[in-house]
Amino acid sequence: MPKTVSARALELAERRVPFVHARVVRAQAPASAHPGDEAIVYGDGTIDGFVGGMCAEGSVRTAALGALHGGGPLLLRVLPQGEAVFPETPGAQVVVNPCLSGGALEIFLEPVLPPPLIEVVGHTPIAEAFVALADVLGYATARSLPDGPPAEHTGAVIVAGQGRGDAEALRAALDAGVPHIALVASRRRGSALLDELGLGEQERARIHTPAGLDIGARTAPEVALSILAEVVEAVRSTRTPPQVADRPAEAVDPVCGMTVTVGRDTPHLTAEDEEFWFCGTGCRDRYAAGLVG
Hints:
- By secondary structure, this protein is an alpha/beta fold.
- It contains eight helices and 15 strands.
- A six-stranded mixed sheet has the order 3-2-1-6-4-5, with helices on both faces. Strands 8-7-9-10-11 form a five-stranded parallel sheet, with helices on both faces.
- Helix 3 (about 125-135) packs across helix 7 (about 220-235).
- The two termini are about 50 Å apart.
């Protein structure tokens, strides 16, 4: 990546900020972008870098946000209206962009998502084995204090203190709204602890105890494996990771029919108490001229 884009990407990765890396892999004259041009697309639709003019950028923005919200890597083919369509290829998406002045583009969109963050409470053999296995899967783990709040965007909290700070850790995870909370305890001890906390039905349902899937585990590593399997199941059931901001609204350009992402810089017009958004200023001006005429 160009230095500025690569430096920004590294910074975002360190801060656990999701983004999409967009790279032009093929360009046909007279497109303004060239192979190797790159950009970062943020969760709010903001773009850093260059992958084409306003019309191409709008198509990239909308497709990138779809990729970020569970769509996965995507090869985007942006064609001017009337251009022959590329042969269909698995994993490719074709967008016919009426406002392009000419030239086709192929842009690879790769979502860059931080690995799920799992906080582990306790230093028991099960806790140690869990951290080691989670590292193999590429998950990020953090050791937290029982009475400390989980870090922002924590995907799961595993309470494995074996009686040391378990109640405080469960309360903190519940208050923070952590999506997956697991308590390492026998069924009897787990139930007694939840009674002790005075939890209502909804809060009790959010705590998985005994932690882990029932795979007949006996040793600490086997129990850790069963807990990690349950975490994977929970993480994969959610298409959009918790770090990803809500997807911006979309609208259909009333002139060319393109789907555009609504943002601060999206060309916009209010007419007869209705709001309209456009792929570019050309479509907006044509629509405005029709209203006057």
